[in-house]
Amino acid sequence: MKHPDMYRGEQIVVLGLAKSGVQVAKVLHEHGAVVTVNDKKEREQCPEASELESLGISVICGGHPEGLIHEGIKLVVKNPGIPYSVPPVKRALELGIEVVTEVEVAYHLCAAPIIGITGSNGKTTTTTWVGKMLEAAGMNPIVAGNIGTPLTQAAQEATADNWMVVELSSFQLKGTEDFRPKVGCLLNVAETHLDYHGDLSDYVSSKAKLFANQGVSDTAVLNWDDSYCRELVPYMKGMILPFSMTEELVQGVFVRPSYVTGTEDDLKRVIVYRDYSESEIVIAEVDSIGLPGRFNVENALAACAISIAAGADPAGLAGTIASFRGVEHRLEYVEAKGGAAYYNNSKATNAKATSMALASFRQPIVLIAGGLDRGSDYLELVPVLEGRVKALVALGQTKDKLAHVAKLAGLKTVVTVDNGDSAASVLKQAVREAAALAEEGDVVLLSPACASWDMFTSYEERGRIFKEAVHNL
């Protein structure tokens, strides 16, 4: 797309009245565009509509009217979660009208260099961690996007003295054209969101758009242990700064000694940065990391690599590595009850995320899992359930699938919780079932391996209800 100033007097349609849609509509209106906002929800479910109308922005609720998209429309900005199969998006593409997400608009407005972070798992933790590292380094970060301030609002506030640190989803990146981050990071790729993308190829290519416009002065931070990340290397135009848990890199951020033998849990490890001249510095001890779990070691490596690529001194990262205590709903310690420790990992919306969480504990685990059925068979959970999980409490659309997988893994105790009067009552019942199965020294872990939308409005709502249920045991 063009800079928003170039749409003065032109007609633009914004699809979706979520927080980002409201903000992008305001921004484009301020730049002189003739903006119409459309949302399929009924008017009484769109409290933001009146505010936009008071500014002179047209709002249409209650569906997508015929004729909304026509040849006079110059740009469509859609909420990232809206599929490309909905009629107004399909019509725009048929007419050759550009369809973008808020990320593209914000990029054209932002005076600050941008750090873009994406991946199937660990985005929010890593993005937040980078923000803390850059703050400690005096680099004036603004953390925005999926977490914090809407991206278009933050972009307008940013100056050349800031760093914009942005968590990005595949949905957002798919709708970009010119977007070019100074530093882009792909953390990992798991088979997820295929109901939206159709297949893994479209999902990976959407993630890869993070690097599509980078040049020789930009940096791509890649997980060297992830095969999908490594396959992108031939297409990179900028510098590559890898990170690895399993390999001592010629250049990059890695763990020494590496996690390769499977029997190394008690070894003393350090995080090392080796630069392009092959000189190196020990950044911190792995044992100093303030978050549990091997996957958080990987997140720490990524955060270090990103911060170094942005110009932070590697020698100054140790303090933030130790002091950072994570983000709500991501392996969040709740409290101990009856000698068992309860953890909220509601953000684990795919099997890989749950596998990583399970691998974080040595104690026996009572697992609460289940949610929206997106077609996965969950068989990849079998090896990590074996010998690690003592009992499963399953709920939601996938409860029977997960119960089947648990039995394949040899679990003798599997409980399924039927749908009750409300989603909250079902989850609270699951917590009570788990508490009855847990013994002193066990971990009770909510790590659903599924999205929440079959029962809850968000994973955040699911996590909050879980914590309330634990507190009320």
From TrEMBL:
Q: Where are the transmembrane segments?
A: none
Show the GO cellular component annotation of the record: cytoplasm
For this UniProt record, the keywords arranged alphabetically read as follows: ATP-binding, Cell cycle, Cell division, Cell shape, Cell wall biogenesis/degradation, Cytoplasm, Ligase, Nucleotide-binding, Peptidoglycan synthesis
**One GO term of the biological process aspect:** peptidoglycan biosynthetic process
Localization, per the record, is:
Cytoplasm
* Major site of localization recorded for this protein: cytoplasm
> InterPro entries this protein is in?
Mur-like_cat_sf (IPR036565), Mur_ligase_C (IPR004101), Mur_ligase_C_dom_sf (IPR036615), Mur_ligase_cen (IPR013221), MurD (IPR005762)
Please report the stretch or stretches of sequence annotated as the Mur ligase central domain: 117-306
Query: Of which family is this protein a member?
Result: Belongs to the MurCDEF family.
**Listed name of the protein:** UDP-N-acetylmuramoylalanine--D-glutamate ligase
